[in-house]
């Protein structure tokens, strides 16, 4: 499969192309599209900047911006190596939501330079998604750009958190448990893990433990980065310390956004009966479904499209951005995120262990998400 993928990309030499909506086949059309007629559109926008949405592609166009510092599970591969992923996301936006998206990989990993670059290019786009930018810079960059006048969303954080919450709603329904009564362990404290933790708490979770490479985040830990200090304050109500093995004991849910093969059979067997496992690392999950099932796990999701129950931000971001663009909302809020998660979960009226999350190919998915975004009052 991997060799086939390289051949696939080499044959295409890029997954995208730019196509003019109006062929320039006559002097009349050329004079309307460019000089002299285009001057009238310029003057209209000069006098009323909001008309840019009516007269240009800004109304349905986003930028996908990366510095290549945290690509998939491959780490800091740089802007050139990030291009295939960004192109793939652009293709998903177009295929599933009809949105124009441009891959923009910037040759800097300086936080302020990234903020400046995004600010300067923002007039051309109706929204911006930040992609594969490492923590904690991704938090600061997104926060600094919330007053840009268009949505700026790090979907590795928020779209991942939304689909995780959606999947968890239905997985807990299978176990006849409520979010507020569930012990949840999140393994991985980067962008996705941080957003998942915060959204689950906002949605009503009470007992979440977060694990980084050194163990459980707690108020007793020394020399934590600022964002991890914040996580330690809002999680781990009993302020326990220890390893992932200590955290998983008697847990109901184990969510991984970390690295492959991290969930061992001993860890799984130490959890409560009928554990829920979301092994979301890409391209290789924290535990393969086949091994998890040997450990007695019935309810499992991964981030991969070739396994059942894919929990991946690709299910969310096409509809989410289409809704943000159509509604002209300036920011993504917690209310929108929770409403979208509930909507996605509702598409599976009778969840089973084999299917408790809709697939990306479900024709209902994007329209339902768009409606959820547009209907959310903030």
Overall description:
With 378 residues, the chain is α/β, with parallel strands linked by helices. Helix content is 43%, strand content 12%. The protein has a six-stranded mixed beta sheet. A four-stranded parallel beta sheet has the order 2-1-3-4, sandwiched between helices. Helix 8 crosses helix 9 (191-203) and helix 15 (334-346) runs antiparallel to helix 16 (365-375). The N and C termini lie far apart (45 Å). The model has no long low-confidence stretch (mean pLDDT 94).
Structural class determined from secondary elements: alpha/beta
Q: Hey, roughly how much beta strand do the residues contain?
A: 5-15%
CATH class bucket of the largest domain:
Alpha Beta
- What number of structural domains do the residues give? 2
In CATH terms, what is the fold-level topology of the largest domain?
Rossmann fold
Largest sheet: 6 strands, mixed
Q: Return the average pLDDT rounded to an integer.
A: 94
How much helicity do the residues have? 40-55%
Count of alpha and pi helical runs: 16
Strand arrangement, major sheet:
7-6-5-8-9-10
CATH H-tier superfamily of the largest domain: NAD(P)-binding Rossmann-like Domain
Outline: elongated
| Radius of gyration based on Cα positions | 22 Å
Query: Quick one: how many beta strands?
Result: 10
Q: Distance between the terminal alpha carbons, to the nearest Å?
A: 45 Å
User: Could you spell the SSE succession in H and E letters?
Assistant: HHHHEHEHEHEHEHEEHHEHEHEHHH
Residue windows where pLDDT falls under 50 for at least 5 positions: none
CATH architecture of the largest domain: 3-Layer(aba) Sandwich
């Amino acid at each position: 499969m991997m060799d086939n993928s390289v051949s696939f990309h080499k044959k295409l030499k890029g997954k995208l192309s730019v196509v003019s909506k109006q062929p320039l086949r006559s002097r009349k059309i050329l004079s309307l599209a460019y000089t002299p007629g285009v001057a009238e559109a310029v003057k209209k926008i000069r006098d009323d900047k909001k008309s840019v949405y009516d007269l240009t592609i800004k109304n349905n166009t986003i930028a996908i911006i990366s510095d290549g510092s945290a690509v998939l599970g491959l780490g800091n591969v740089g802007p050139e190596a990030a291009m295939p992923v960004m192109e793939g996301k652009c293709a998903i936006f177009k295929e599933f939501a009809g949105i124009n998206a441009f891959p923009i990989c910037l040759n800097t990993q300086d936080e302020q330079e990234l903020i400046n670059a995004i600010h300067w290019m923002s007039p051309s786009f109706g929204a911006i998604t930040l992609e594969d930018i490492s923590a904690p810079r991704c938090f600061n960059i997104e926060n600094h750009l919330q007053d840009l006048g268009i949505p700026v969303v790090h979907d590795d954080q928020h779209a991942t958190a939304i689909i995780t919450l959606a999947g968890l709603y239905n997985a807990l329904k299978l176990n006849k448990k409520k979010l507020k009564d569930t012990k949840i362990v999140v393994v991985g404290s980067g962008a996705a893990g941080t957003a998942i933790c915060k959204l689950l708490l906002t949605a009503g979770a009470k007992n979440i433990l977060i694990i980084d490479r050194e163990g459980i985040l707690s108020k007793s830990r020394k020399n934590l980065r600022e964002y991890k200090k914040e996580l330690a304050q809002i999680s781990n109500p009993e302020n326990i310390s220890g390893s992932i093995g200590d955290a998983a004991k008697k847990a109901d849910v184990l969510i991984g956004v970390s690295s492959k093969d991290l969930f061992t059979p001993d860890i799984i067997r130490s959890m409560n009966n009928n554990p829920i496992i979301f092994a979301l690392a890409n391209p290789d999950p924290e535990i393969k479904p086949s091994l998890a099932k040997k450990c007695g796990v019935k309810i499992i999701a991964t981030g991969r499209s070739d396994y059942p129950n894919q929990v991946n931000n690709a299910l969310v971001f096409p509809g989410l951005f289409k809704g943000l663009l159509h509604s002209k909302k300036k920011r993504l809020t917690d209310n929108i995120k929770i409403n979208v998660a509930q909507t996605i979960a509702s598409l599976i009226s009778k969840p089973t262990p084999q299917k408790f999350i809709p697939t990306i190919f479900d024709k209902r998915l994007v329209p339902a998400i768009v409606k959820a975004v547009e209907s959310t009052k903030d």
